[in-house]
Hints:
Blueprint: E1 22-26, H1 30-39, E2 45-50, E3 54-56, H2 61-65, E4 75-77, H3 78-81, E5 88-92, E6 97-99, E7 104-107, E8 110-113, E9 116-119, E10 123-125, H4 143-161, H5 166-172, E11 174-178, H6 182-201, E12 212-216, H7 228-241, E13 243-246, E14 250-255, E15 258-262, E16 280-282, E17 285-288, E18 292-294, H8 297-305, E19 315-316, E20 322-323, E21 326-331, E22 336-337, H9 351-369, E23 384-389, E24 392-397, E25 400-404, H10 405-418, H11 422-438
Parallel strand pairs: 1-2, 1-9, 2-5, 9-21, 11-12, 11-17, 12-13, 19-22
Antiparallel strand pairs: 3-4, 6-7, 7-8, 10-18, 14-15, 15-16, 20-21, 23-24, 24-25
Amino acid sequence: MAPERFFLELDPPHGAMADWPHVVIVGGGFAGLKACHVLAGQPVRVTLIDKRNFNLFQPLLYQVASGLVSEADVASPLRQMVGQAPNIQILLGEVIDIDTEAREVVFNDHRYAYDHLVLASGSGSTYFGHEEWRPLAPPMKILEHADEIRRRLLMALEEAEQTRDPERRRFLQSVVVVGAGPAGCELAGSLIELMHRAVERDFKQLDRAQCRVILLDAVDRVLPAMAANLSADAAAYLERAGVELRLNTMVAAIEPGRVLLRRPPDATGEADTGDDGLGDLEAATICWTAGVRASRLGRLLAERTGAPVDRGGRLQVEADFSLPGHPEIRAVGDLCHYAHTGDGRVLPGMAGPAVQMGGWVARDILAGLEGRRSAPFRWFDLGSMAVIGPWYAVADLRGLHVSGLAGWILWALAHLAFIPDTENRIALFSKWMWQIATRQRTALLITGRPDQHLGVDVGLERAVPPDGLSQLPGAPPSGPLNRLISTPRITAM
């Protein structure tokens, strides 16, 4: 008989679980998933709420965008990963409000009580006040973003194959990537390699020399968070691969098929408005990797609790990741601004810190329930890495700088270790080896609809039965699909 897991019953179930503290975790990313793993099998009831039913390995989204791997290779169902634990409940939905006085989260028209709340809702993309650019330059934060980038590029190549106008062909074979951080460099390097290989092998009418990928950023070097020598190595490799670097250059505006440029402000803060020969960039495919903003729950909690947030909307937390005055609420991962480090530097929004945060907070909750005090959180810096091309990556491992093949091997081992699902780990390794051996990509399908990254509707969809069934006992009222049906308050057991 299946174990009892009736967390949504209005009347608490019988047994020891009814008296266990209730931990609600919002977000099934790196931090939230790690917290679930630590709490699995412990004397606490855990509810994980996420608007997607899978964990996404975001560092490899660029490989989905460039056809190296498929969606299922970088995403794993949450119910299969942690839902088998008898004390963990997985619920699909988006938290829209938090009542800190009543200790309740609001989602799917439910009010769901908690004893401990762990917010691990991650981050999204920001266009620095220019949301009108989003449909013209897809970001790369969710699967639909990567699918859209791949769809746009492949559709452009298909049109170029049938185009007689050479100017039009050059336009269709051009890509602009905005943002020269790890995501931008990885995407640019992967896209130029995809285009070169596709044109050489699959497209009879196209010229490899006309394939163009421009990497654009306001900074003065690629990978600015890494050591200068690694930035130089990465830039040199990208240029050898055919990527054009346009640094010290800002986006003034984005129009259909066009990026308008300007110089960044000088040391006095004055913008250069003169004609400096920057010109404009024309490309059929434009991608955005330049800005990150915290989940909107950061601003929401700031309003509810008075907790401070930084410019990116991240909650400034205490040393134990709790909000000031609310020890029962913790914020981890990309949602938190954590500066309680030895040098006072804020922890970066990367997978490594997120996993360590989620695990520490879960252990600290267990320690508190047992009347113990946890040792202070100490982040172990694993370094940073970026893969630039086949067999080539740069890695900064706590001062040890590695590039080239050795960097790629370290990058591959680290990413395989961080992938939470064994099946995905095996599939990715085999596909990487196949691609390196044959230079063939396995996921170059054109699917979906145009602009599928816009207005992605995620969360619970309420199916409403036909009118003829609406009178059945317990049936919800009839109405359109996705209508939220009012339900009673749900209490923690």
